[in-house]
Amino acid sequence: QHVQVSPLQVHSYAGYPSRFGVVLNVTAMSAVLATYAKRVYQHLDKRGRRSVATRLSKMNESEELMEENDKKNRADVDAGTRKEPGFNLFKYGLEALLEPKITDWRVVQGDILACFAVPNLVVVLFVRTALYSPEWARLSTSIGQPVLPAILSHGGALAICWSLGALLGRAWEARAIYPNHPQAAVSRILVAGIIAVWILVVSTEINLFAQGITLQQFGKVGYDVDMRLIRAHVDVFLDSTLSLLVLGAWRVA
C-alpha cells in the first residue's frame, strides 16, 4: 500500500521549484527593479532640470553680455562720429534742408506772419515818430512810392532768412514746438535765430558790395558812404532785435 517514489521523481521535485515560487520571485525582482529605476529616474530628472536651468542662466548671461557689448560699441561709434564736428554739422544741415521734418504747418505760417509784422513795427515805432528811417523805407519814399511795397518786400526777405534758419536749426520739429521739451525748444529757436541773423548780415554785405560799398571804405571815401554803412548795420540790428521779440512772443503764446 505504500507508494514508492522513484529516484527520478525525487530528483525532479528537488531540482525544479514550483511555478508559484517562480512567479513570486519574478514579481519581487520586478518590484525591486522598478523602485531602483524610479529612484534613478528622479535623480537624473533633478540633474537634468539643474543642467537645463544652468544652461538657461548661462544663455541669459551671454545675451546680457552681448547687449552690453552692443551698447558699448554703439557708444564708441557715436563718440567716434562726434569727433568730426565739421562733417556732422554739414550732414545735419543737409538732412534738415533736403528732408525737413515739419510737425505743424500752422507754426510755419505764424512764423512767416511774424516776420512780416517786423517791418510794420519799424514803421510804426520809428518812421511815424520820426526817430529813425531805415534804408529800405528811405529808398521807397525817395522815388515817390508808398511804403507798403517796401514793407512787404522787406518782410519777405526776413521770412526767407528765418525759414532757412528754422530749417537748418530744426526749429519746426516736435521738440522745438511742443512744451514737453522747453530746453530743446529754446535752444533750437536760438540756433535758428543765430543762423537767420547770419544770413541777414551776409545778404546785407552782398547788397552793399553790389553797390560798390565795403567796410574798408568807412571813414575814407565820404560822408554818404559812411552813413550808408551805418544805416545798413542799424537796420540789421533793428530787424534782428524785433524779429527775436516778435517770434519769441509768438512761440511762447
Low-confidence stretches at least 5 residues in length (pLDDT < 50)?
1-24, 80-87
Strand content: under 5%
Number of helices: 9
From the alpha-carbon coordinates, what is the Rg to the nearest angstrom? 46 Å
Biggest pleated-sheet summary = none
Report the span from N to C terminus: 135 Å
Mean pLDDT: 75
Number of strands: 0
The SSE order reads: HHHHHHHHH
The shape, in one word, is elongated
Alpha-beta classification: mainly alpha
Helix content: over 70%
Molecular structure report:
With 253 residues, the protein is mostly helical. Helix content is 80%, strand content 0%. It contains nine helices and no strands. Helix 4 packs across helix 6 (147-168). The longest helix is centred in the N-terminal third of the chain and has 64 residues, at 19-82. It is elongated, with a radius of gyration of 46 Å.
Distinctive features:
253 residues, mainly alpha, 80% helix
Summarize the structure.
80% of the residues lie in helices and 0% in strands. It is mainly α. The chain is elongated, with a radius of gyration of 46 Å.
How does the SSE layout of this entry go?
Blueprint: H1 7-15, H2 19-82, H3 85-98, H4 105-127, H5 135-142, H6 147-168, H7 174-177, H8 182-210, H9 223-252
